[in-house]
Design goal:
alpha/beta; eight-stranded parallel β-barrel; two-stranded antiparallel ribbon; 11 helices; binds flavin-adenine dinucleotide
């Protein structure tokens, strides 16, 4: 079933979460343990992030360095297939423009098709750590919408060189990203919503938000999107606040604000264990308000927060 069908298949608010592929060389068992922790809450689907390569410099001695390309978290497609086979839960691998030529993407789509994975989250992807602005690789794309167009062609049986497939399969269905507090590069919210609308018109079936801690921002964003004629589900992306360092790391990394009340409570904490408890309570209240508002689904970002999410889920599901 497609993500939109899965979230519509339940009367109550659906539950889903995002995981990261394991760091290279660390095996998949820890990931399975995280999934087992959250499985009792009946996840409708599981997203798997994709991580571009980065450059590292190896010291060769005598003042010489070699620049090598490193994938710290490879294996998105394989992890998606492994989870789908082991648990029978729909997986949604993220497919990104970063670091990919059109041909790279085409082979990824073929692998996914052969594996029977037909739901995707289509993204531009992060810029490289060595880049000040996002730069496409070779003939790769600058924006998610261009990647959507390649997927749409693939769904129609057309490869990037214009040749036709002999046999087509179940078409891919996909969602895209959106930002209740605006994407960092967008000049203003009007522009960001304009491009979201273009992504919807290009075929996005739903959008998932960047994480946020202030429901007012989500409500205002949804209202504005609806006024602009965007009718697809806008699924809130949620992550419990977990440790004191996140007071600075979250705004810097995700370009979102932490509400003053949450910050005041966090600053009263003596250690991360107390901060995690504040985060759980905040998240429970946040989720309850979103459920009362009628969101179709809650999508949790699990990295470093699986235990907190279990505590939240115990209270709200
Ligand atoms: P786009 O849709 O291309 O938008 C980027 C910016 O360009 C926005 O400001 C938009 O307003 C503007 N824009 C869009 N289209 C056009 C156009 N045609 N012309 C001009 N301007 C345009 N990153 C990863 O590397 N891997 C992941 O797995 C990953 N998962 C994510 C999951 C979610 C739910 C979210 C919210 C983000 C995720 N990211 C991931 C981060 C994401 O890749 C970055 O936020 C990236 O900078 C933007 O991606 P996008 O798909 O929103 O890009």
């Amino acid at each position: 079933m497609k993500v939109t069908e899965l979230i519509n298949s339940t009367q109550s608010t659906a539950f889903s979460f995002e995981i990261l592929p394991p760091l290279k060389g660390t095996g998949i068992e820890k990931l399975y343990r995280d999934i087992d922790t959250l499985r009792p809450f009946d996840p409708k689907y599981i997203n798997i992030t994709t991580h571009r390569s980065e450059y590292i410099y190896r010291d060769l001695g005598d003042g010489l360095f070699r620049r090598d390309k490193l994938y710290r978290r490879p294996g998105t497609v394989a992890v998606a297939a492994a989870i789908q086979n082991k648990y029978g839960i729909t997986t949604v691998p993220h497919i990104i423009c970063s670091d990919n030529t059109r041909e790279d993407i085409e082979y990824e789509l073929l692998d996914l098709q052969f594996l029977g994975i037909t739901d995707l989250l289509v993204l531009r992807g992060d810029k490289g750590k060595h880049e000040s602005v996002f730069t496409p690789t070779g003939d790769g794309y600058r924006h998610a919408i261009e990647l959507q167009q390649q997927i749409n062609d693939f769904n129609r049986g057309i490869f990037v060189d214009g040749s036709e497939m002999k046999v087509t399969a179940t078409p891919f269905s996909y969602g895209v990203a959106c930002y209740p507090e605006k994407h960092e590069e967008a000049p203003n919210m009007e522009s960001d919503i304009y491009w979201l609308k273009q992504k919807v018109e290009a075929g996005a079936a739903y959008a998932v938000t960047q994480l946020f801690y202030d429901n007012r921002k989500y409500f205002a964003f949804v209202e504005r999107a609806r006024k602009e004629g965007i009718t697809i589900p806008i699924i809130p992306g949620i992550k419990p606040f977990k440790k004191l360092s996140q007071l600075n790391v979250v705004p810097k990394t995700f370009k979102v604000d932490l509400p003053e009340n949450l910050t005041h409570e966090a600053l009263k904490c003596k250690d991360d264990a107390q901060a995690a408890q504040v985060g759980i309570e905040w998240c429970i209240a946040q989720c309850r308000e979103l459920m009362a508002y009628g969101v179709p689904s809650l999508h949790f970002y699990t990295v470093g927060a699986t235990d907190s999410i279990r505590e939240v889920a115990k209270q709200i599901y």
